[in-house]
Please model this.
Amino acid sequence: MTIPFPEPVLRVGVIGAGAMGEHHAETLAFELGGCQVVAVADLDRDRAGRVAEKIGCDSTDDATAVIADPAVDALVIASADATHEPYVLACLERGKPVLCEKPLAPDADAAGRIMAAEVEVGRRLIQVGFMRRYDADYRRMKAAVDGRALGQPLLMHCVHRNQSAGADFHSAWMITSSVSHEIEALRWLTGSEIVSATAVLPRSVLEHVFDPQLVLLRTAEGVVADVEIFARAQYGYEVRAELVLERGTVSIGMPAGAVVRTAETMSTAVPPGFIERFAPAYRRQLHDWIQSVRSERPAGASAWDGFATAIVADACIASQRGGGTVPVSLPERPALYH
Model:
């Protein structure tokens, strides 16, 4: 179903034509009203061309040209993590709203520079793509916390498993690309900042990476979370969480979908990847972003959220490398994000 928007149409450029960028471009082009994808950019010109041909727009290997184009009103950035900082800064220089996929930047220093640039602009133009805020199950969990009927949150157990990972993945990537979702979800669910992080590494079956890993997080309000990240679980993509509160628990993803019982077996389908698991959340996120740009009312995760998450991720990586618990200290939140 197409969601109607008033005219004029928001003209969107998509930077990055990998799996995430392609999915965003198609969702914007075919499922949401009030917007038009006018350009797709990717360093791989052929890949950009294939996506652009499907949706009927221009393609290029020059992302900065798309950002600078006066015919582009807003940008979706789904390119490689290392490119987020220069592309988002270019958007801010031109006063263009941007939905940047997580992480906002590969480390806290880069994320801090982005946030400082937005503060200098004086208005929120950045939304970070932490789509779990838009997932129906996570929203039910959030409602249970905010409703207070079950009391205060005490513990959170998280499982994050991918079917596979590229040959170049590494231990730090597992934090910045995957555990960052759990970091941000814990902050959002509890309304409390994280004050310490510990990475626990089991024996490794690979020379260059520890997989799986266990991450322990503690918030300022004393909520403790454990996160299992398994990048090469092989059987599919699975995200589960259980929040333990004073008078009950809330669980999601246990299991997801229908359970079939037959011939002395019980089974349920496991999605192959994150797009299949979170497609509705990605769609709601894009819809919300379009509305926020058109109304100039910021929505979703902010640059502050991206920066705070990056600081915690850096602490997790420091714990990976040096062992032990690493304290987390955040600077004062800028007034723009209150």
Observations:
- Residues 1-6 have pLDDT under 50 and may be disordered.
- The domain at 137-273 is CATH 3.30.360.10 (Dihydrodipicolinate Reductase; domain 2).
- The first strand starts at residue 10 and ends at 15.
